[in-house]
Amino acid sequence: MESFSADWLALREPADHAARAAALTAHAAERLRARPGRRAVDLAAGSGSNVRYLLPRLPGVAHWTLVDHDAALLAQAWRLVTPLAREAGRAFDVRQGDLRALDTLPLDGCGLVTASALLDLVSLDWLRAFAARCAGAGADVLCTLSYDGRIACVPSDADDEHVRALVNRHQRTDKGFGPALGPDAAGAAADAFAAAGFAVHTAGSDWVLGSADAELQRQLLAGWAGAARELAPADAARVDAWLARRLAQVDAGTSRITVGHVDLLALAPPPGA
Fold it and tell me: Within a domain: residue 160?
């Protein structure tokens, strides 16, 4: 499975938190208020950013379980989440696990399953099996920040669309779960959960990056350029020139980048439905 560095996760965290569709989180909180004391499971938890966002916003969760395959990131999550959980009076634990083995995930008996920036990495087969597993557990699902293929850069550049198309192709390559859904993830997830009997709600959660996000813009642009070169090595010089122009705009404080994301809340059907 694909891993992400702690530095990258920390860099993107403010943009992630600012972009979240607050109304969907509030709706999930309403559901939990009707059945307080439930356990929630956060998948691909990384350093715990998603749980740090949700802890104060989901008071109905009594116990969080954070699952990731990366032991080092889970150790960091333990350090970062512990003081917040103690302050809020919540229990939590971390578990190292392989998300590809859905049957081994601790979903039974939980009221909510969450994940952030995960669905665009998985395959359609995994997603359908995940929806079925959550339905079997009777758990609501809140999956946020799924990339939807939209990239808008200001000022525009003649090669923006060329690079975006290559990035979106790269997003569909195997990230450890089979051919990734990439930009199709949000739509595929809505269909999969609806087919499993969930009531599905979606909302935009775009990154809107300006001069205050200069380092995130730099890392994002460099990552896009690397993905484009990997898929089209013959275009490396063209991509490098594009990157140089875009980085010059970041350095000048004139660059604005919007990256399209979608949040999804899937509400489990009542037992026996």
Answer: no
